[in-house]
Amino acid sequence: MNLTDSLGRKINYLRLSITDRCNMRCFYCMPSVGVVDKGHKAVLSYEELLLIAEVAVGLGIEKIRVTGGEPLVRVGVVDFLQRLAAIPGLQHLALTTNGFLLEEMAADLFRAGVQRLNVSLDSLNGDTFRKITRGGDLRKVLAGLEAAERVGFPLPKINVVTMRGVNDAEILDFAELTLSRGNSVRFIEYMPAIKENGWQRYCISGNEILERIATKFTLEEVDKGIFSGPSRDYRIPGAQGTIGIITAVSGHFCSECNRIRVTSTGQAKGCLFADAKTDLMQWLRPPDREGLERVLKEVVMTKPERHGITQDGYNHKNFNMSQIGG
Ligand code: SAM
Ligand code: SF4
What we know:
Blueprint: E1 13-17, H1 46-59, E2 63-67, H2 77-85, E3 92-97, H3 102-112, E4 116-120, H4 126-133, H5 138-151, E5 157-162, H6 171-180, E6 185-189, H7 206-214, E7 220-221, E8 232-235, E9 243-246, E10 259-262, E11 267-269, E12 278-279, H8 289-301, H9 321-324
Helix pairs in contact: 1-8, 2-3, 3-5
The protein binds S-adenosylmethionine and iron/sulfur cluster.
Residues 22, 28-29, 67-68, 70, 96-98, 120, 159, 161, 188, 190-191, 193, 321-322, 325-326 line the site of S-adenosylmethionine (SAM).
């Protein structure tokens, strides 16, 4: 089945957040105090998440990315992923993680049917990593990357939120990784989230990142794969991994947007930065499959044409990316 929005964009990708809790506290994503505990009842059960996924796949969703907060901290996640992977018609199941628990869990995740991992890793320097994540241990994440490779995953993609004055001195080191380790690396523009941080002072445009890489390496443009998402991809000749630029802020990939999001509390969103969200609870408790189908189609049909972050008068609202799933 084909799911198309009012502008003719094919919507085939669901980002499904299963928790807003996290074992790290990245300063660009969460307030230092963490998130307010919403209580057990406010969070969707695995049964409810599976129902949403089944209905979405029935409508035309082909790829699901499980995200959070940190998805690997939720008890029972492996069993949930196994059931998710078994949904008929789902072509691609991916997971985004901070990598902290990957060393212990990689083998189970692979057996459960997760096909690809994205690992967020913003610094290769232990001290900088600790500052960004407010206490995270880089060695654990590196061990997690190695474990993922050992158990048979394709080399995880590494996501780097690139921040001026924080980790931008490492842009070339990350580019080098695509040669030395073979992972693909995607540089993500800093998006407005936690208001007290501001965002413009950190945000480095994708073009500037490319210019900096080009001071040392030749870059060839790479054709996009079908599920490659919104990144513009390049390769250093001879490198196994690619270099992706996710210009969420500066380059409007909204015209190619293929995704919707559902949060762990059952809020469906057609756009990360739009105020509009639809509470799915009334179609989940008790479960109403037809109602869910109707409302998910509506979320798709009312997807805005584009986000307004770069427009004059954009009102930067405070939010934690961990509550939506990035
Ligand atoms: N905990 C997992 C992780 O860190 O990969 C999954 C959830 S996290 C919210 C998903 C993605 O959102 C991560 O790659 C993270 O770097 C990104 N993210 C969070 N806040 C962001 C911001 N202000 N700008 C750009 N990316 C952000
Ligand atoms: Fe946690 Fe991921 Fe947010 Fe970092 S980016 S605080 S690891 S949810």
